[in-house]
């Protein structure tokens, strides 16, 4: 059985949840994971772990979404940031997951990452949006990606799921997370997903 550590950092502001999360003690070939909670979202990621097939160079994140609200939720947006052992950004990606989770229930998902994750890396996972009953809860517009993964994000309510200029926003996130510049970037407006790798 894996051991668990409750990891939190106080941000000194009551309105913010802070960078609270569960960090799994990884096996010899597993990267560490960290979950960052966003204040104001009706759902959270309650568990996360990583596995990598180094022969195929395929990394998969396993995570559980918990619906903490009194209404069903139908879709979620997840952001994953890959950092090396020194905390430098190697890359990141975001995707939309559509699945109905009833109130006070949870569901587990697997997501293959387009970034290969080494055993010495760390993957920071953020549930950045949730949608249900014609409205959405999203990270407030203008929130910087580095602030988000530090636990300084708070959600606002939107009346719809559509995100205007999604790829422009995603490109800005990638540039901010990559102080030495972006090596590769791809984005899809139709699936609300993007991926980037950073220069060393």
Write up what this structure looks like.
This protein has helices at 145-149, 166-177, and strands at 4-7, 21-24, 32-36, 43-53, 58-67, 73-83, 89-101, 106-113, 122-132, 135-139, 155-158, 182-188, 193-198. With 200 residues, it is mostly beta strands. It has one domain. The longest helix is centred in the C-terminal third of the chain and has 12 residues, at 166-177. The protein is globular.
Question: Whole-number radius of gyration?
Answer: 16 Å
What is the string of helix and strand elements?
EEEEEEEEEEHEHEE
Shape: globular
The overall strand count is: 13
Given as residue ranges, the uncertain stretches (5+ residues, pLDDT < 50) are 1-26
Give the averaged pLDDT, no decimals.
79
* Major beta sheet summary: 8 strands, mixed
How many distinct folded domains?
1
Helix content: under 10%
Q: What class would the helix/strand composition place it in?
A: mainly beta
What proportion of the residues form beta strands (DSSP E)?
over 45%
Query: Distance between termini?
Result: 36 Å
- Please, how many helices? 2
């Amino acid at each position: 059985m894996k051991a668990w550590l409750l990891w939190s950092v106080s941000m000194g502001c009551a309105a913010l949840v802070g960078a609270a999360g569960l960090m799994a003690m990884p096996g010899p070939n597993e990267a560490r994971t960290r979950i960052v909670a966003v204040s104001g979202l009706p759902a959270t990621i309650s568990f996360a772990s990583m596995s990598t097939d180094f022969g195929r160079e395929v990394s998969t994140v396993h995570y559980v979404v918990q619906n903490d609200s009194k209404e069903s939720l139908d879709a979620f947006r997840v952001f994953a940031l890959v950092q090396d052992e020194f905390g430098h950004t190697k890359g990141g990606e975001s995707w939309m997951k559509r699945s109905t989770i009833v109130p006070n229930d949870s569901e587990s998902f697997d997501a293959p990452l387009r970034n290969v994750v080494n055993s010495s890396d760390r993957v920071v996972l953020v549930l950045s949006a949730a949608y249900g009953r014609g409205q959405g809860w999203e990270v407030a517009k203008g929130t910087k990606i580095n602030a988000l993964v530090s636990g300084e994000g708070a959600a606002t309510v939107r009346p719809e799921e559509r995100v205007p200029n999604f790829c422009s926003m995603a490109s800005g996130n990638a540039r901010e997370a990559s102080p030495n510049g972006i090596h590769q970037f791809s984005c899809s407006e139709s699936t609300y997903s993007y991926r980037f790798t950073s220069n060393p």
